[in-house]
Design a protein that fits this description.
By secondary structure, the chain is an alpha+beta fold. It has a domain of 59 residues: Head domain of nucleotide exchange factor GrpE (Nucleotide Exchange Factor Grpe, Chain A, domain 2), CATH 2.30.22.10. It is 55% helix and 13% strand. It has a three-stranded antiparallel beta sheet. A three-stranded mixed beta sheet has the order 2-6-3, with no helix packed on it. A hairpin with a 2-residue loop joins strand 4 and strand 5. The N and C termini lie far apart (154 Å). One of its GO terms (biological process) is protein import into mitochondrial matrix. This is GrpE protein homolog. It holds the Pfam family GrpE.
C-alpha cells in the first residue's frame, strides 16, 4: 500500500498540481481503524512484589533523632575512655617521678655515706691509737704527789685532742660506743664476741670487757665492738 501511494504521488507530480481531497485518504483510515478494532486487547501482569509503602515523615524524623542520640552516646563513651586513659597515664607519670626523686635521694645519700665511710675507716685507726696512748698512762702516775707535771700536761693535751676529734666526728655522723661500762646485752649485729667466760654476779650474755671499741656511722655499724661475753651456764 505504501508503494502504491508513492507511485500515485510520482504520477501526480508529473501532472499539474491539484489539491488532494481529504476524502482520498478515507479508505486508508478506515482500513487502519478496522485492523485496530480487530486486534484483541492485551494486558500485562507483573510478578514482582509490590513496593513497600513510604514511611511517614514522623517516623523518618524519629529514626534520625535516634541515630543522632546513639552517635552522641558513642562519642561520649569514647571521650570518657580517653579521659580515664589520660588520668591513668598522668598518675603513673607522677608516681614514677616521685619514685625517681626518692631513689635519687637515696643514691645521693648512699654515695655521701660511702665516701665518708671510706674516710672514717681510715680515721678510726688513728682514734684507736690515740685511745691506746691515753690508756697506757696509769691514773696513779697523774696524781700530784708523784710530781710529774710534764706527764700530766701531755696527758691533758692528748685528752683534749681526743675530745675535740670525737666531737668533730660526731657532727659528721661518726660515733664511738663502748658496751662494757653499761653491761650491754650481746648483740651480734653490733658486737663481736672475742671470748666467753664465767663471771660471778653477772647475767649471761652481757658484755663485761671491751677489747676494741665500735663505731657507728649515721646509725649503721661501721665497725663492731670486740667484747668479752659472760657465760655462766
Amino acid at each position: 500500500m505504501f508503494q502504491r501511494t508513492i507511485l500515485r504521488a510520482s504520477r501526480q507530480a508529473a501532472r499539474p498540481v491539484q489539491r488532494i481531497q481529504p476524502a482520498a485518504f478515507a479508505p486508508i483510515r478506515q482500513q487502519a481503524g478496522t485492523r485496530a478494532a480487530a486486534a484483541p486487547a492485551i494486558r500485562w501482569y507483573s510478578d514482582a512484589a509490590p513496593a513497600p509503602e513510604a514511611k511517614p515523615k514522623e517516623d523518618a524524623a524519629e529514626a534520625t533523632k535516634d541515630d543522632g542520640a546513639a552517635q552522641s552516646k558513642e562519642q561520649l563513651e569514647k571521650k570518657d575512655k580517653e579521659i580515664i586513659d589520660l588520668k591513668d597515664k598522668y598518675l603513673r607519670s607522677v608516681a614514677d617521678y616521685r619514685n625517681l626523686q626518692e631513689r635519687t635521694k637515696r643514691e645521693i645519700s648512699a654515695a655521701k655515706d660511702f665516701a665518708l665511710a671510706r674516710f672514717a675507716r681510715d680515721l678510726v685507726e688513728s682514734v684507736d691509737n690515740l685511745d691506746r696512748a691515753l690508756s697506757t698512762v696509769e691514773p696513779s702516775k697523774l696524781a700530784p704527789e708523784n710530781n710529774n707535771p710534764d706527764l700530766v700536761t701531755l696527758h691533758d693535751g692528748l685528752k683534749m685532742t681526743e675530745r675535740i676529734l670525737m666531737d668533730t666526728l660526731k657532727k659528721h655522723g661518726l660515733e664511738r660506743f663502748d658496751p662494757s661500762p653499761n653491761a650491754d646485752k650481746f648483740d651480734p649485729n653490733v658486737h663481736e664476741a672475742v671470748f666467753m667466760t664465767k663471771m660471778e654476779g653477772k647475767e649471761d650474755g652481757t658484755c663485761f670487757h671491751t677489747q676494741q671499741k665500735g663505731f657507728m656511722l649515721n646509725g649503721r655499724v661501721l665497725r663492731a665492738a670486740k667484747v668479752g661475753v659472760v657465760k655462766n651456764a
